[in-house]
Amino acid sequence: MFLTITDAAQQKLAKYISPDKQVILDLDDGVGKYSKVGSCSLNMSYRLLVVDKSEDISHDYSGTLDSTIGQLHIKPYSTQYLDDNMRLDVNPRLNTLGLSSDSEQMDPNVNIVDIAKEMKE
């Protein structure tokens, strides 16, 4: 399983990525300390969460996913919804991040949530 993050998506993520941060590809299903609301619909909803490196996320996000920018943390059971080859790219018309696989668009609007910043405010 691999997530290709395009150059355009990497540029959008650049201000969030640093050695003192860790990135989570979060299936927003209402499980975990960063989820406030789960979705009952059949649609998959993903978010990229940015947290401090010192934050212990191992309880909910003990899985990993290889990507163009290194390993991302994930909920271990969320791999059942992911494909072998996935892609995170920018929709230039809407300036949003979209997650897709070779066979389908998984989420056309992947939000970036800077938890590290929210915790400091």
TrEMBL record:
Residues 1-114 form the Core domain. InterPro entries: ATAP_core_dom, HesB-like_dom_sf. Pfam families: Fe-S_biosyn. SUPFAM superfamilies: HesB-like domain. It comes from the Bacteria. Transmembrane segments: none annotated. This is Core domain-containing protein. It comes from Loigolactobacillus rennini DSM 20253.
